[in-house]
Amino acid sequence: MSVHCVRKAVIPAAGFGTRFLPFTKAVSKEMIPLIDRPVIQYVVEEAVASGIEEVLFIISDGKEEILEHFRPHADLENRLMETGKSGALAEVRRLDRMMKMEHVYQKTLDGLGDAIRYAEDFASGEPFAVLLGDTVMDSDTDRPVVGQVIDVYEKFDGPAVALEQVPRDRVSKYGIAAGNEVAEGVLRLSGMVEKPSPDKAPSDLAFAARYVFDSDIFDALREIGRGKNNEVQLTDAMAMVMANRPFYGCRISGRRYDIGDKLTFLKSTVEFGLRREEFSGEFKKYLAEIMGK
Q: For the whole prediction, is pTM greater than 0.85?
């Protein structure tokens, strides 16, 4: 069994974020703040903590603020230095030193599969991870969620996707997979479908916004036609790859926060706020007060 080192990651971030309009008319959904960091920063930090060395952002026109967030800002750094805000200065400098970052524009928003096609030159034949840019993952272990998927890829020498159990009545919102367990928490997949109706879903295991692929995913993306919603569906390309080689699912040890959903965003803000030592006590007291009214 060959062993690979997954050192590249692709972060699709070209979508309009219509569920958060009107806010996302001028601000990218990936820049929605979760306490004091935008969602995209949590995603990049997860990649870094998993051993990723290079990242490709797939963006559309008007979303350059994502790139600016990770670039050096000399005037800001000088101001922080002059005012003695060393902690903030260190945090700002950390952003532009995380890893090597590149970007490419998705010319027409034509589905997640179409977005991934723009990463072929960046991948250059190497395996690569995909992390959806509007989804924060919270791991229950020392290994970040995308790192868990990378581990499955490297152990079983095959493409892998993060899986999360979802309520049966919500399967129509996700790509859904089925398979047989080959190790604890690892399934060899036998079927997958994009956003099925509950009565036609092969299981209640949803794709959880993290993937690891080999270069054959690009061959599949070239061959498939349009799928659900008349878009190029990544799930259809994954199914084509699965027909030719083993494809694995990793039951994640952790939790997904889809920040593009308003209710999830509100819940996430509360949960992440309660974890912050500097104000968690006062925040908890405030929540108790308003809940008692």
A: yes
